[in-house]
């Protein structure tokens, strides 16, 4: 349970000062568990009041171990429970006050009339999220979601729900939007992803059609492995083309 307040490294002792971390060091500390986290994501979470790192006289952010722990909680709750940032902030603040709140669930409203509560039909499963849940997690409205669907960035399942990965896509589209990148600009990214998926599918398709269940299970593992490798290659090629290297 979180017991130290945000910005708790600011007590001024030399020992605590030595434990403060730069934003780059925080990124490296989190990336093993959260490989998609970026510096802009950390800055955004700060702007939303989820963390309050210290600032040096020159304006650089310095993060305490408690800040890093809190960041991990935020990212974990987004990834595993698809919760809006407002709900996550309220939950963690309650923990810091010494309370023992139950983990909020988007499948049930916290209080009567809560706007983000959804019906039983929209209740999430491990591989599916409902429409209302997706909008709540991404903090977008129906018009934005419809726009993303028009460009094929978010694709509903036949039953009207969404693959859980849609939450990740939605979060990234929102974050790119903060840089002025609109859904229509992402068609090339979508096309590149479909070509990469087609390449992976060519490799694993014979395994998927095999009669042996173990071989079909191997196909799923091979698909995940190849998806990870092509994703890393894509990222490396983009960095090379831009002449930059991410920390």
Structure report:
By secondary structure, this protein is mainly alpha-helical. The protein is built from ten helices and four strands. The strands form two sheets. The chain has a two-stranded antiparallel sheet with strand order 1-2. A two-stranded antiparallel sheet has the order 3-4. Strand 1 (about 55) and strand 2 (about 60) form a beta hairpin. Helix 4 (about 65-80) packs across helix 5 (about 85-95). The longest helix is centred in the C-terminal third of the chain and has 30 residues, at about 215-240. The chain is globular, with a radius of gyration of 20 Å. The two termini are about 30 Å apart. Mean pLDDT is about 80; it is low at about 1-15 and about 105-125. InterPro entries: DNA-bd_dom_put_sf, MerR-type_HTH_dom, MerR_fam. This is MerR family transcriptional regulator. It comes from Streptomyces rectiviolaceus. Keywords: DNA-binding.
